[in-house]
Design a protein that fits this description.
This protein is of the alpha/beta class and 406 residues long. It is built from 22 helices and seven strands. The protein has helices at 13-24, 36-41, 48-59, 66-73, 80-84, 91-105, 110-122, 126-138, 176-180, 183-194, 210-214, 218-237, 248-254, 257-260, 268-277, 281-286, 308-313, 319-326, 347-350, 352-367, 379-385, 395-402; strands at 167-171, 197-200, 243-245, 278-280, 302-304, 373-376, 392-394.
């Protein structure tokens, strides 16, 4: 797609990246076939091709409107379009550039601004988010509809054991996960301990920066990334083998640290190293000898919801299913597995109607084969899909529950 950047964008770092991405787009429309919002809304501007064109107009000098902002906001950042695209268009990078520029030029409605600021100043901080979540659970009957979703009881985190193996790796506690599902990292530590790998948490590491990045709060996102790099670096110097992610949404972001901090002289080299060391827990488990556990899941049917951040962001589609099958589990095929569940970080709160439609579609697909359990690989998807009637857990918890019996 040809483009001519306006003078104030030409020869800027983000402008050159955006221009390169736009020019790779051949306007074929294959992306619309796998775009969740285009499938629901049927509006060209709510598909990747249309959003690319909106960003192109902006960078060529057109003035964005609130309508432009709405169409970009309705994007899930699921990156299914990137998996589908035959031309290798890096849509997510372009979307970040476009949204950030629109944010500078278009003033949001007051309620929207308040909600976004509330998310930025609470969710990434467990010390703030935990008490807020407790209060929200108590007041749930009184809350407006969009705030009733994703509520789960606050759980206390148990301390990790000290390093006792020669091999050791780091794990990110995360922000939401550390409050809502701390047992996930404990399960990962237990499984890796059986494989003679110690899993450690760096006490000063915090939010990965994904929420701030996708809400166009780029400075805050960079600060959170820098904080994590500083927290991990002493362990890296001591021979840390990998930085393990048990939330694929965080993993997708940490693997982009090298790109996102490429212009930061103090952190460019370190961020590239961190991205290189970042591994999803599935990558770590898949690389180990699991032959002793080959009958671990015999007789159990498990429906796996592959998060967008795992299959489209990290391109690790099929890895978890392969592990489960290797261990004896049956994994039925899930229809429309490439379609987002509707969680998408803060999306469930910012776009509740679209989010709930996608949630129901995903649950119907997961339940179709009547599996014994439904599992996922990302805390956002887990909280979004789970309910008392149909609990959803992290897949690593399956292994942790049963390895003692081997």
């Amino acid at each position: 797609m040809q483009t001519r950047l306006a003078k104030h964008y030409a020869n800027t770092g983000s402008g050159l990246i955006a221009e390169s991405i736009i020019r790779n787009c051949v306007h074929c429309g294959f992306c619309n076939a796998t775009c969740p919002t285009y499938q629901i809304l049927g509006d060209e501007r709510d598909g990747p091709r249309g959003r690319i064109y909106l960003i192109k107009q902006l960078l060529e000098g057109s003035t964005p409107t609130r309508e432009t902002q709405v169409h970009l906001d309705q994007c899930l950042n699921c990156r299914a379009c990137e998996t589908t695209c035959p031309s290798g268009v890096e849509y997510a990078k372009l979307a970040d550039i476009g949204r950030a520029e629109v944010e500078k030029q278009v003033r949001r409605p007051f309620a929207d601004r308040i909600l976004r600021q509330a998310l930025l100043h609470t969710v990434p901080y467990p010390g703030r988010f935990g008490p807020l979540l407790k209060t929200a659970n108590l007041l749930k009957p009184l809350l407006p509809g969009r705030l009733k979703i994703n509520l789960t009881p606050v759980q206390k985190s148990k301390p990790f054991s000290q390093q006792r193996h020669q091999r050791f790796m780091l794990v990110l506690a995360g922000c939401v996960q550390s409050v809502s599902s701390p047992q996930t990292n404990l399960a990962a530590a237990k499984v890796l301990d059986k494989l003679a790998i110690s899993l450690l948490e760096a006490p000063t590491a915090g939010c990965c920066g994904a929420m701030a990045q996708h809400l166009s709060a780029e400075e805050k996102a960079a600060q959170q990334m820098q904080q994590n790099i500083d927290a991990w670096w002493p362990y890296i110097e001591q021979g840390c083998e990998a930085i393990v992610m048990t939330a694929s949404g965080c993993g997708s972001t940490v693997k982009e640290y090298g790109y996102l901090l490429r212009n930061d002289k103090a952190y460019a080299a370190k961020s590239a190293k961190v991205s290189f060391l970042c591994k999803d827990i599935a990558e770590v488990i898949a690389a180990e000898d699991l032959s002793a556990w080959k009958n671990l899941g015999a007789g159990n049917s498990i429906a796996f919801q592959c998060p967008c951040s795992l299959q489209h962001g990290q391109r690790l589609s099929g890895v978890v299913e392969s592990i489960l099958q290797q261990l004896g589990y049956t994994t039925p095929v899930v229809s429309d597995a490439h379609i987002c569940c509707g969680s998408a970080g803060s999306y469930a709160l910012l776009q509740p109607e679209l989010s709930q439609q996608l949630r129901q579609h995903k649950l119907n697909a997961l339940k179709a084969a009547q599996p014994d359990k439904i599992v996922t690989a990302n805390i956002g998807c887990q909280l979004h899909l789970s309910s008392k009637e149909q609990p959803v857990n992290h897949w690593i918890e399956l292994l942790a529950e049963q390895i003692d019996n081997v």
